[in-house]
Write a structure and sequence with these properties.
The structure holds 2 protein chains of 2 kinds. By secondary structure, chain A is α/β, with parallel strands linked by helices. Chain A is 34% helix and 25% strand. Chain A contains 17 helices and 20 strands. A 6-stranded mixed sheet of chain A has the order 6-7-8-3-9-10, sandwiched between helices. In chain B, the strands form 2 sheets. Chain B has a two-stranded antiparallel sheet.
Chain lengths: 510, 343
Amino acid sequence: MASNESDLILEMKNIDMFFPGVKALKDVTFNLKKGEIHSLMGENGAGKSTLVKVLTGVYQKTNGSIRFDGEIIEPKSPKESQEMGISTVYQEVNLCSNLTVAENIFIGREPRGKFNQIDWQTMNKNAKQLLHDELGIDIDVTKVLDFYPVAMQQMIAIARAIDTKCKILILDEPTSSLSDRETERLFQIMRNLKNMGISIIFISHFLEQIYTICDRVTILRDGTYVGAYDLKELPRIQLISKMMGKEIKEDEIEAVVDKSVPEKENFIETDNVTVPGKVKDLTMNIKKGEVVGFGGLLGSGRTEIAEMLFGITEKTQGTIKVDGVEVSVKSPMDQMKNRLAFCPEDRKLAGIIGDLSVRENIILAMQAKDGMFKHMPRHKQNELADYYIDLLRIKVSDREQLIKNLSGGNQQKVIIARWLATEPNLLILDEPTRGIDVGTKTEIEGLAVRLAKEKRMSVVFISGEMGEMVRTCSRILIIRDHEKITELNGDEISTAHIMQAIAGDYHGQA
Amino acid sequence: MPKFLSDLIASPRFSFYVTGLLFIILFGIGSVSFEGFFSPQVFLNLFIDNAALIIVTVGVTFCILSGGGGIDLSVGAVVSLTCMSLAYLMRETSIGPYTSMFLVLFIGVAIGLINGFFITFFKLQPFIVTLGTMFLCRGLTAMISRDSVPIDNAVYGELAFTSLEIGDCFLSLGACIALIVVVIATIVLRYTSFGRSVYAIGGNEQSARLMGIRVDRVRLLVYVISGVCSALGGIAYSWIMLSGYTLHGLGMEMDAIASSVIGGTQLMGGVGFIPGTLLGVMIQGTILTIISFQGTLSAWWTKIVVGILLCLFIVMQALVTEHKNRLMRLNAEGSAKKAKKAK
């Protein structure tokens, strides 16, 4: 792409960024033209937010150069970048909930009075006016921020950012908690700013929004630079394929192994279930003895659906039925009693307890289900532990080995064993094979199918590796922007179809 | 619940109003029960007797407000160290009382810097750092002298008895200084960007940093302020005691924390009001006065009442937070409904 040097307000070249032990950005290039709306895209963990934080001085880059407005800059702190004219709305609402709305907009640059004291009256007046003029919001700005819902806080954060006289405005996932109307309002503001010559970096998971508002896109994957493209010339399917790093071959249909054939009855059904900002109006079912995959990009909402099913987040609308009976789900304990089990995505964070032995880790969930004070005789514990160590072929020296000394794959098996010990009817596996060697991966895939086939257990299998889902799932729900957009059944299941479905080009045979 | 009441509970000043009401009730009980209780001088005595505690509590409040487990346990020990240093300087050296007072303020600055440095630079827990400096200061005090050292400088003694005549009543110099400190602290916290930064980092350190606040600098300064307040409190304390002793100000840090919390400061940081803190100290003072008027009860009853109050206030704070959350949910649902209608 031929771009004139002087067109560029920002040039980030060969950016490297290390976190202790991890390379978060590798040789990333990012160019921003004057007066354009440029999207940064990539799956969760691709490095979008890290790149933004390098630019705003929250993190310091290890290598590379940043040229802003014709000069090389080395931002060291958010304050510095703000003063240079780089204004940011970060992903999570980054305001102080104990301060008033007006203060949150003006902190650090409050209007001053005669004695250089903070002039509260002027500040409140200006804040009210700003919110009214720019965003069409009329609220009491003297109220403390946490009085208002998250969507409103998001708008206030935006108001704070656009108020500073900026040259670049960075919006990191600003729309995740906004309603359609508020989003439209935000887009209107973005167009105005663009016409004023301000460049905007817009990060969002919502494909529709990207194509509506943005001119160009830079794609990152696993901390590396994939490319920058004009959105007009980039079909959606290409965008997705670049984000995932997979070429699309139309005829690529992988050999279907012997999958589980589900029964007629549903084990769990949801009807129009909504969790604000996480799950949108979901209607689906999972049959007994069925392996269901949730397909979608990282951050599309597939984990959120699993969390909703397991009662980690509470729905505000809709109904959940287990075995045909409507259930009220207030906490994971409710769903454990309904015989659901959930192996979370990040086993380090939410799964293993490193300093306990394999045996203790296995009986943990069962103990929680039975109640803290119900004693389980030691010989029974041993029996259980040995049974699952054997069943899942967990490689341990003995059952008293500390789990932190096992390999990732074996840790994962222990966690699966823990949930199997509760004898669930539905097992949710969220990224069960991440960071695991190929051999163990295949074993876990096989296990999912075997559980469904032999024990008639329902299994939800969530994975970013489409090949894995293609091999194991009897049905795949395609999730995008926190919504189920379609389902793939039986023979339709192939990598190509999943990607097309995510792009919205394939709607299934049904 | 009527809207007026609901708004009142949700207002950030609610704790302050409750504390104020409690003070009036306690003072009322005293006035009704005991003859001679209801007099301006009894009221002013609350400031005179608690001058040192008021000053120290202001410093501790800054620390608690700044969040991140902010607390300063070294204050009582600093009070003791300043008293002892004053006594030593005036007894063993030819340094005059005014210079001595000026010098001991730097003890506060130094201890504050040490606390602040370890807390911000090494990201250590304020609790453990200030516990360390607490032991350090107690130890240093004992190193100077293990026995009580009287302050017999004539000029200093005069200073201690200087007072401001208000009609028939009077206010000691220490009490005047305490009130000035309260006023200054209130203004600083309300009308300067440093003050607002203290609230901001107490509310959400991460956000504050992203909004361009120099978090570490603010926090360091907070501990220096607390150090200086303790040293100043130490001077006020020495005007009452006129001696230096290792056991001076023992447990004062706890009284200060209790006063601050009863005065509406939230231990999580970010919420608090200096006049509330003042009321917190005065409530403790009032209870003590009631007990001394009563004559037969042990002074330890003060601790029992303060303990109960502390628990009640923590519970109240939890309930208020719960109420706010409910309001916020209602608010969110309300605006969602509105949006639907608009469609």
